[in-house]
Amino acid sequence: MSNMDQIVTTDIFINGEARAASGGRTYDLYNPARPKELVGHAAAASVEDVDEAVRAAHAAFPAWAALGWEERADRLREIAKALTADEDDVKYRSRLFTREHGKIARETLLEMSRLGDRFMLAAAFGERMSKDEVMGPAGAGPQFDTIITRQPRGVAALIVPWNWPLSILGAKLPQALVTGNTVVVKPAQNSAMAPVLTLQIIAKMLPPGVLNVVSGLSSEIGDALVGHPLVRKVNFTGSVPVGRHIMKLAADNLTPVTLELGGNDAALVLDDAELNDEVFEKMYWGAFASSGQICMALKRLYVHESRYDEVVDGLTAACERAVVGDGLIPETTMGPVNNVQQLKVVTDMLAEARGKGADVKELGQVPDGDLYRGGGYFQKPALIYNPDPSLSVVREEQFGPCLPILKFATDDEAIAKANDSEFGLCSSVWTPDADRAVKLARQLEAGYTYLNGHGPMAQDSRGPFGGFKNSGIGRNLGYEGLEAFAASHTITGPAGFLV
Ligand code: NAP
Ligand code: MG
What we know:
- This protein is α/β, with parallel strands linked by helices.
- The protein has 2 domains: 3-261 and 476-488, Aldehyde Dehydrogenase, Chain A, domain 1 (3-Layer(aba) Sandwich); 265-460, 3-Layer(aba) Sandwich (Aldehyde Dehydrogenase, Chain A, domain 2), CATH 3.40.309.10.
- It has helices at 47-66, 69-83, 87-101, 105-130, 165-170, 173-179, 193-204, 218-226, 240-251, 277-288, 308-320, 340-355, 369-372, 392-395, 411-419, 434-441, 478-483; strands at residues 8-10, 12-14, 17-19, 26-31, 34-43, 133-135, 144-152, 155-159, 182-186, 211-213, 231-237, 257-260, 265-269, 298-304, 359-362, 382-385, 402-408, 426-430, 448-451, 472-473, 486-494.
- It has a 7-stranded mixed beta sheet with strand order 15-16-17-14-13-18-19, sandwiched between helices. The chain has a 6-stranded mixed beta sheet with strand order 10-9-8-11-12-20, with helices on both faces.
- The chain is globular and about 70 Å long.
- The protein binds NADP nicotinamide-adenine-dinucleotide phosphate and magnesium ion.
- Residues 159-164, 168, 186, 188-190, 217-218, 222-223, 225-226, 237-239, 242, 245-246, 260-263, 295, 397, 399, 425, 472 line the site of NADP nicotinamide-adenine-dinucleotide phosphate.
- NADP nicotinamide-adenine-dinucleotide phosphate (NAP) binds next to helix 8 and helix 9.
């Protein structure tokens, strides 16, 4: 333990002030690499705290909305700079993030810088959002002058999962703010403290009430936030079952929802794909970054039968290079899975595959065997070679470090197999032939297709992000990510009155 590792207690943040949850209630967070090690106490907000946060956001809304996009965008740019300005504080938050979450230090730093980048990007899109569409008389029939403007909705409830909380906040928080909404954020239980400390930096740079943060247990406060009558927009990222529940609850108030849910991303490696160690490393990171706990991770790898053995050899070698252990150690390339339930999902899938005769290999280096066997939620990267497609490791979202590699014979078969899923988040096509890549991409039922890459490192944040089918409703990021926080408003007068 370094002196940076004192047990920390984090607050909620309401109306410009950090404070304890009512009654001083907290819950404990433990290190997934060493589950007996207490990392800290996060505030456990009550239903009353949630109500206060929503009311503070509601009260702050008119002035924030009236400020104008330019001033809001300026604030966002200042925030982007402030997020990484204090090196010691960045180190402190990064270390805390690794200890409460499990992810490697390189990734916690990446999340922090990506959050700032996304504030800059949303600020840049603000101008386009501010431009009214103006129309004079046209065509036959009654003649009008019309302005179509876009108005913020009011209080937005932003709910994020534990896996990539800061990057995911970057896909919705600055977009909500620049559009003129005020916000209440509910971080996930399993990764609350570093995100809350980061959100406080942001909240303190905004007028009181514009950004409020309520950490706590969804079983206690989730429904109170989503169902609050003053919440005008719910933007949720998380699992499919919770997404369904949230949509049903939001229906009572007819609150619009954006839902970013799970994925089971297919990658298609075509017969002409360029394959070498660099490419295999890219595939490896596309599937196994964050121990596979990424919505947009590669989760089903389909390879043309003529290249199958090559891909198996290359990817097996890449997995063997993985160094599994404590994310605080710089040599580690894969930390533990975040929580014991998620670990069980993966180990159950692997057990089922083995039980049904699949060829499963667990690969990778474990320099600290005592730690690996010491009760932490570790799982080495696992490959499942040419499994039966009915296995859950192929059908379901693994959200952990394992990857099935399957074969196809024709492009049409590849598309059919990729689309044979209830999910439709992302996908990828691997070929040097751009025309062929785009032609196939257009046939994939997915909100995003990467070409010759997969996952967060291959993503252009200027594009909208979201899913088809059970992977969700609506889009975050890009310009559409701002539009989701606004409603159009048509203002019409007789011809000659406005234009
Ligand atoms: P989760 O269990 O659905 O929880 C997500 C968030 O919702 C957490 O903050 C959770 O709080 C909260 N929540 C749960 N019940 C709620 C309720 N009734 N009302 C309001 N909020 C509620 O998901 P997770 O286990 O954290 O994350 C893993 C899942 O997220 C995976 O399926 C993954 O694919 C998906 N995901 C999708 C995307 C995407 O962009 N499409 C990105 C990342 C992850 P508590 O933590 O307190 O329960
Ligand atoms: Mg959960």
